[in-house]
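Backbones bend. We report:
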Amino acid sequence: MSLDLIIKYFPKLDAVQQSRFALLEELYQDWNQKINVVSRKDIDELYVRHVLHSLAIAKIQQFKAETTVIDVGTGGGFPGIPLAILFPEVKFTLVDAIGKKIKVVEEVKEGLELSNVTAIHSRVEGLDMEFDFIVSRAVAAMPTFVHWVKGRIKKKSIHERKNGILYLKGGDLTEELSSYKTAQIYELSNYFTEPFYETKKIVYLPLKYKG
């Protein structure tokens, strides 16, 4: 059932991708017993609440080969790990300030043999690197997040969509995004039928944050 859910929305997965997605549950179940990175409630619904949620970004943006993406506040590896499975030619950097979470990311990366993932124990402000896209799952209100990632986005875009932030959020974002006139909101209920996605969204914020 778990893998079936992913194939339902991403039917073109190859055999390697399918085996990696199937292995995710075992790896996270194992590591979650040692280091609690996913809540007990959520681990039983890993594919709906974490894996598919992460992959929602791919419904909005298909990354070209050699794209560089940073996952800020990745926690146990979401959305970075599922996206790295889906886009093996894309370079993902997963960053978290909590060491034990990055330890889990490292172990899952090794278990899945993902050569396109780099895990870093750091705050994003401490990195002197630039990326095509920044992804994250609601680690802070948008104004705070924009401040954290300032100067981390490459100026030159290789996609039709301008480089910027792809942010997984939920609820009413009217006030939070009021100063970001270029922000675009995508309702995940337009892509996934599961009840979990009724209030879930992706916010895209292009490079120039003009209010």
Q: What stands out?
A: The mean pLDDT is 92. The chain is about 35% helix and 20% strand. Residues 121 and 141 are 22 Å apart (CA to CA).
